[in-house]
Design a protein that fits this description.
Elements (H helix, E strand, L loop, with lengths): L1 E2 L2 E6 L3 E4 L4 E4 L6 H7 L8 H16 L3 E4 L12 H13 L4 E5 L2 H6 L8 E4 L3 E3 L2 E3 L10 E4 L4 E6 L5 E10 L2 E3 L10 E2 L7 E6 L2 E4 L8
Parallel strand pairs: 4-5, 5-6, 6-7, 9-10, 10-13, 11-14
Antiparallel strand pairs: 1-2, 2-3, 3-4, 8-9, 11-12, 12-13, 12-15, 15-16
């Protein structure tokens, strides 16, 4: 698809790829969220950081990006800077040392504090304007630019026969604003309410498919 005068590819792995710049963009990884829950007394399984990093490895191997851009909420909270979480991230970073990492700071990043300097992450304030794009965490319209954002963890609910339904993460394509699904494997979703003319592209089992919706008035 075309955004801000450039070519983008939306990926079923909950990511977007800027073809001309070879930038891989994800939103809402929430590294260390499970560690945060455990630190606060909530018994949740381990392994979500490992899963997220493994999924990034697959994308990096496939696309060979020059940069990886996080659209906010890289770490979930201060407790997410747990030794095991940071050690896993550091090992991953050493495998991808030539890769430029950029964080457009979101609300959880402000609460978690800056990432450790040895991770080599360049932090930006939203909206970060590059060419015809405005890279953000919070969904917003930026004059003269196509905005790309996260934060909402968008999802669409599909109904089958009877009472059967399923909620699937999705890309939400609005006027001059595209909202990415949450990348993190241990994140919730929020059903969206789209207006006529907006597009919704959902994902399931590594497939992308557009959900028919409301039409704009003639």
């Amino acid at each position: 698809m075309e955004l801000g005068g450039g070519e983008w590819v939306l990926l079923a792995q909950r990511a977007a790829f800027w073809v001309e710049r070879r930038w891989l963009v994800i939103a809402d990884a929430h590294f260390g969220k499970a560690a945060t829950f455990r630190a606060r007394g909530v018994p949740v399984p381990q392994g979500t950081t490992t899963d997220n990093l493994a999924r990034l490895d697959v994308l990096i191997t496939s696309l060979q990006p020059f940069a990886l851009v996080f659209l906010g909420d890289l770490f979930h909270a201060r407790e997410a800077h747990a030794p095991a979480t940071l050690a896993a991230f550091q090992r991953w970073r050493e495998r991808h040392r030539p890769l430029e990492l950029v964080l457009v700071e979101g609300n959880h990043d402000q609460a978690a504090g800056p990432p450790p300097k040895n991770l080599g992450i360049d932090c930006k304030v939203e909206p970060w304007r590059v060419d015809g794009m405005a890279l953000c965490h919070h969904p917003q319209r930026v004059p003269g630019a196509a905005a790309l954002a996260g934060h909402l963890h968008p999802a669409v609910r599909l109904h089958g026969r009877g009472d059967d339904s399923v909620r699937l993460p999705c890309f939400w394509l609005r006027d001059s604003l595209t909202i990415l699904p949450a990348f993190g494997s241990f994140t919730g979703t929020a059903s969206i309410a789209r207006a006529p003319g907006e597009r919704v592209i959902a994902m399931a089992d590594d497939w992308l498919f557009e959900i028919p919706g409301l039409r704009s008035a003639a």
